[in-house]
């Protein structure tokens, strides 16, 4: 069975208070908030966080399908990983196939999939191992079961924002969002910056009622994004490379600028799903 042979790594990240984070040097910041190595060919890699119990994972199947294993069930203390959790994923690679309790979903580039709690058997496969799918996966605790749904790029809610004058012209694609489909708490989408634009999520904001995670991608090998984090009055930065993720605590801003245009997947879990429920930070208050 694929689940028994799935190469996997599992890491746990504990929550950090801002008072502690402000004593960190660069190495400690990266150790606690940067998540590299999720999307590794032939593996299903997992980072389980104590921020709203959100799990970040990457699955890049090659010749054999990848699947959640007993270790992923033990991670959350249940009979299988999604017994009391919901799942969202976005494919940023080649054509992929996800099978959930016998139902198969074929996912093109930039398609998303939602699976409700109680889904027992999930496998991830590539249609063409020479052009593998890259599934970026989030799971979060769920108190109710909602139907599975395949969300194409065309079915996502597209929200254009920004301008070339402020170097932040971009489109937000809302996939797991109350305007698109019901979920318990997981909200997930993708932002794509246009050529010549580099700033994301500026003006900055915080939302103390929920955490957030970012996965940056489509960054060339010699490019990077400078991700800003921390309290507005005490910002820090992390240099983020292609297909690396960031765990953003509720007390932290989450914005940044790249050396070129790029895309990123954002996800949130916490007390509410109101996308505009945020505390805006005036530009002059950032330090």
Structure write-up:
This protein has helices at residues 2-5, 18-21, 26-33, 70-76, and strands spanning 8-13, 34-35, 44-49, 55-59, 66-67, 85-91, 96-100, 103-107, 112-115, 122-126, 135-141, 149-151, 157-161, 170-176, 187-193, 199-200, 205-206, 210-217, 225-231, 234-240, 244-248, 255-258, 263-270, 279-280. With 287 residues, the protein is mainly beta. The protein folds into two domains: 2-17 and 36-151, Jelly Rolls, CATH 2.60.120; 157-285, Jelly Rolls (Sandwich), CATH 2.60.120. The strands form five sheets. A seven-stranded mixed β-sheet has the order 1-3-4-11-6-9-12, with helices on one face. A hairpin with a 2-residue loop joins strand 7 (96-100) and strand 8 (103-107). It is globular, with a radius of gyration of 18 Å.
């Amino acid at each position: 069975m694929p689940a028994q042979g799935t190469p996997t790594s599992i890491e746990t990240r504990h929550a950090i208070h801002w008072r502690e984070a402000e004593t960190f040097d660069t190495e400690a910041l990266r150790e606690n908030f940067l998540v590299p190595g999720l999307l590794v060919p032939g593996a299903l890699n997992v980072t389980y966080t104590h921020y709203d119990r959100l799990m970040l994972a990457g699955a890049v199947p090659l010749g054999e399908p990848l699947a959640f294993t007993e270790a992923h069930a033990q991670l959350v203390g249940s009979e299988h990983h999604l017994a009391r959790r919901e799942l969202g994923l976005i494919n940023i690679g080649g054509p992929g196939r996800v099978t959930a309790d016998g139902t198969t979903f074929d996912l093109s580039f930039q398609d998303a999939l939602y699976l409700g709690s109680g889904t027992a058997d999930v496998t991830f496969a590539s249609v063409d191992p020479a052009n593998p799918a890259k599934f970026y996966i989030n799971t979060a605790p769920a108190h109710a079961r909602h139907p599975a749904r395949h969300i194409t790029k065309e079915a996502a809610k597209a929200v254009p924002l920004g301008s070339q004058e402020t170097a932040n012209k971009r489109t937000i694609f809302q996939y797991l969002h109350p305007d698109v489909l019901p979920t318990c708490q997981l909200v997930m989408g993708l932002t794509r910056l246009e050529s010549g634009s580099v700033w994301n999520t500026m003006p900055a904001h915080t939302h103390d009622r929920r955490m957030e995670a970012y996965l940056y991608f489509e960054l060339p090998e010699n490019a990077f994004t400078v991700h800003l984090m921390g309290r507005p009055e005490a910002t820090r930065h992390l240099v983020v490379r292609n297909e690396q993720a960031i765990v953003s605590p509720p007390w932290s801003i989450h914005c940044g600028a790249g050396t070129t245009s790029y895309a990123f997947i954002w996800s949130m879990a916490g007390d509410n799903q109101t996308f505009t429920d945020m505390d805006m930070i005036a530009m002059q208050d950032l330090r």
